[in-house]
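Quick one, probably user error.
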C-alpha cells in the first residue's frame, strides 16, 4: 500500500501544469462570471441595508423629534388649561363677590328705606296724635264749659278720653 501511495503522489509535470493552468482558467472564469456578479449583488445588498439603516435611523430621529414636540405641546396645553381654570375660578370669585356686594347694598338700601318709612310713620302718628289730642282738648273744654266738674270728674273725663284715643 505504501507503494501505491507514493506512485499516486508522483504526478507527471505536464499533468500538474495542466491542472494548474485549468485551475487558473477556472478561477478567471469564476471571477468574471460568478465572483463579479456575486460581489456586485452582495455590495448592492450591503448598500441597500446601509441605506435602510440610515433611513430607519433618520425616521427614528424624526419620530423622536416629533415625540418631543408633542410632549412640549401637551405640556403647553396642560399649562394653558391650568391657566384657563385659574382664570375661570378668579372670574367666578369676582362675580360672587360682586353679587354679594350688590345684595348687601340692596339690603342696606331697603333697611334705610324702612327706617325712613318708620320715621315718617312716627311723625305722621305724632301729628295725628296731636290733632286728636287737640280735638279731645276742645271736646273736654266744651264739655267743661257746659258743666262744672269737680277735680275727680275732670280726671275721670281725661282718663276716658285718653282711653278712647288709645283705642283709635
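Nope, works fine. Designed sequence:
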Amino acid at each position: 500500500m505504501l507503494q501505491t501511495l507514493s506512485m499516486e503522489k508522483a504526478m507527471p509535470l505536464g499533468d500538474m501544469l495542466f491542472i494548474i493552468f485549468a485551475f487558473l482558467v477556472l478561477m478567471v472564469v469564476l471571477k468574471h462570471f460568478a465572483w463579479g456578479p456575486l460581489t456586485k449583488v452582495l455590495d448592492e445588498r450591503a448598500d441597500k441595508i446601509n441605506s435602510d439603516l440610515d433611513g430607519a435611523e433618520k425616521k427614528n430621529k424624526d419620530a423622536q423629534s416629533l415625540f418631543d414636540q408633542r410632549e412640549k405641546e401637551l405640556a403647553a396645553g396642560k399649562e394653558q388649561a391650568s391657566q384657563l381654570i385659574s382664570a375661570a375660578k378668579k372670574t367666578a370669585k369676582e362675580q360672587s363677590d360682586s353679587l354679594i356686594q350688590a345684595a348687601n347694598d340692596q339690603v342696606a338700601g331697603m333697611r334705610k328705606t324702612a327706617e325712613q318709612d318708620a320715621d315718617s310713620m312716627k311723625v305722621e302718628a305724632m301729628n295725628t296724635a296731636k290733632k286728636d289730642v287737640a280735638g279731645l282738648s276742645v271736646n273736654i273744654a266744651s264739655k267743661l264749659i257746659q258743666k262744672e266738674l269737680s277735680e275727680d270728674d275732670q280726671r275721670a273725663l281725661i282718663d276716658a278720653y285718653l282711653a278712647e284715643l288709645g283705642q283709635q
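The radius of gyration is 64 Å.
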